[in-house]
Amino acid sequence: MTRFIVVVLDGFGIGEMPDVTESRPQDCGANTAAKLLDHFPLKRLPTLEKLGLINITGLTRSVMQPSPLANWGTAKLAHDGCDTFMGHQEIMGTQPKPPMIKPFQASIDSIEQALNQQGYQTERISRDSLQLLVVNGAVVIGDNLEADLGQVYNLTANFSHISFEEVKKIGQVVRGANAVSRNIAFGGFIPSMERVFHAIEIKKDQQGKPAYIGVNAPDSGAYDEGFQVVHLGYGVDAQVQVPHQLHQIGIHTYLYGKVADIVQNDSGTSYTSVVDTDEIFTLLLKDLDNHQGFFCANIQETDLSGHQQDPKRYWQILEKADRGLAAVIDTLVASDVLIVMADHGNDPFIGHTKHTREQVPLMVYSPGITGVQVGYRNTLADIGASAAAFFGANPPESGCSLLAPLKLEKEPHSF
């Protein structure tokens, strides 16, 4: 069997991007991986150590050491900001476009009008001169407070009062009434709407004025029971991404966790709304035992730990991921490739609860290939381009394959 596997440790960046002084001064000094290693100097992540994590971060106070056998490199973010949605679109070979920045307040009228025209009942909740929308008494719409402010709107739903299918329909109406980069429709079985309302928060703009209003997603209880989610992007063309290009030559794509919620994979297998790290690896390992093709898994709990500014939980999730990666490596044969990477940073020591604009690690494993430097890449799209080249498919919209120095390039339809 021939398998190309990507595991994304969501938010596990390796140091600030060169442009943060101008673009995101709040992220100056961010280095998620190195700070965690320094904070837990006597603990090991043996699989990531073997894969070259210390080769990438440089020496820290950690007992972990560089690996002479590792194949490693780094990648910059080509998308503006540091967004999970755009990060994964970039990984799949998309050339990112600059996002629109528009607080929910600037879109609330058009969104409410569109919902009312489709027969939905709406009311507004006001806080400090800002307003949220409540739809059919069960869905609260406002700014996403965890991503870059003004680029994402959230629809937080209580499935005790409305079905996920209906929430997705509401999401499509909302998506058609605004042009920010992403709308996220999600929810869970929450004891009461009061918990959602109590999780409403306000964020200020650079002038210190209230500008963004939304629901704190972890505090809302949406993740606690029966969580489901769909991400609705703006201006992303799935026809130029890796899953589509691979499908054209008969290669199946398997997506796990948040990447399955984010990336269009109509002809493949997508395990959506899965957050638990152990469950992600269980699903991945089961498929690796029985199938070939392209596999991409997102480990979201690292990112959630960063949002919570919780280093201890972050490290515990890394330990789970490390064990899961060891199990994946045990299944691999000489024709397989594993890439472990991130999509941005989420430094739990930075002092704010948002993503951090950081470069990401690239750790590449294929049995029998050792000690190769795959370079300092300018875009995450090089991963998608590598997957396409590996299977001999047409390239995606963006990216250059990193597999040549590993001597892993394949001829079209050669397997």
UniProtKB/TrEMBL annotation:
<dbReference type="GO" id="GO:0043094">
    <property type="term" value="P:metabolic compound salvage"/>
</dbReference>
<dbReference type="InterPro" id="IPR017850">
    <property type="entry name" value="Alkaline_phosphatase_core_sf"/>
</dbReference>
<keyword id="KW-0479">Metal-binding</keyword>
<keyword id="KW-0464">Manganese</keyword>
<dbReference type="GO" id="GO:0000287">
    <property type="term" value="F:magnesium ion binding"/>
</dbReference>
<dbReference type="GO" id="GO:0009117">
    <property type="term" value="P:nucleotide metabolic process"/>
</dbReference>
<comment type="similarity">
    <text>Belongs to the phosphopentomutase family.</text>
</comment>
<dbReference type="GO" id="GO:0005829">
    <property type="term" value="C:cytosol"/>
</dbReference>
<dbReference type="InterPro" id="IPR024052">
    <property type="entry name" value="Phosphopentomutase_DeoB_cap_sf"/>
</dbReference>
<dbReference type="InterPro" id="IPR010045">
    <property type="entry name" value="DeoB"/>
</dbReference>
<dbReference type="InterPro" id="IPR006124">
    <property type="entry name" value="Metalloenzyme"/>
</dbReference>
<dbReference type="Pfam" id="PF01676">
    <property type="entry name" value="Metalloenzyme"/>
</dbReference>
<dbReference type="GO" id="GO:0008973">
    <property type="term" value="F:phosphopentomutase activity"/>
</dbReference>
<feature type="domain" description="Metalloenzyme">
    <location>
        <begin position="3"/>
        <end position="394"/>
    </location>
</feature>
<protein>
    <submittedName>
        <fullName>Mutase</fullName>
    </submittedName>
</protein>
